[in-house]
Amino acid sequence: MILFVALGNIGKEYENTRHNAGFMLADLLISSGGFIAQSSAKFKGELYKKGSVLLLKPSTYMNLSGESVLAVANFYHPERIIVAHDDIDLPLGALRFKLGGSSGGHNGIKNIDKLIGNEYERVRIGVGKSQNGSKDTINWVLGAFSSDEKSLLDTVLKTAFNACLAAFSGSDIKELSSKFSLKPPKEQSKEA
Q: In this UniProt entry, which residues are annotated as the site Stabilizes the basic form of H active site to accept a proton (predicted)?
């Protein structure tokens, strides 16, 4: 069984924010059909099932995402866990896949690492960094995508969607990385 976890914050005010890139990917997967909601308050999130795939959107808010992941993992004992999340260390338009490693300061990842360890796969969706420096990181990740940014993000999410389908069909992290990783589009020359 595969547990696919999408990170984000619940509530209308967070729907189009950078921190909800994982939720946006989950919503694409759910809307593709076949996922059936599994109701249980003990999972601390929205849980869906399709064949041997569980899809989880924690409702604990980002910083406590690990509580939801731990509850589902303890109940279902998945062989594979994949976590999709926004990543400020990657520019908007980038998509990367990795196994384990550092949280990169991402509080949702930190909490998951604390509760289940870091030996899970990650789908890293680039959202870039604030131009105002690290002091503005919270406002940046909780800020909404502009329409131009959303257009670029939609392209990334479509690729991530296809990568997830490949993972659900058995592709390993190396295959995902070689087939679906994206580099951001080249920046326009600032001299022009």
A: 86
Q: At what angle do helices 147-168 and 173-180 cross, to 10 degrees?
A: 140
Cα atoms in the 13 Å half-sphere on the side-chain side of 152: 20
Helices (H), the chain: 21-31, 65-76, 107-116, 137-141, 147-168, 173-180
Kindly state the average pLDDT of the residues 41-66.
Answer: 94
Mean pLDDT score of the chain: 89
Query: Which has the higher per-residue pLDDT, 90 or 186?
Result: 90
Fold of 2-180: Rossmann fold (3.40.50)
Is 118 labelled as part of a ligand binding site? Answer: no
Catalytic residue among 19, 77, 85, 106: 19
Calculate the alpha carbon distances from 86 to 4, 96, 122, 127, 192 in Å. Answer: 15, 11, 10, 6, 31
pTM (two decimals): 0.91
Consult the annotation and say whether 48 binds a ligand: no
61 labelled binding-site residue: yes
Q: Is 19 a catalytic residue?
A: yes
pLDDT at 191: 36
Listed by start position, the domains of the chain span 2-180
Which tokens belong to 87? 């990543």
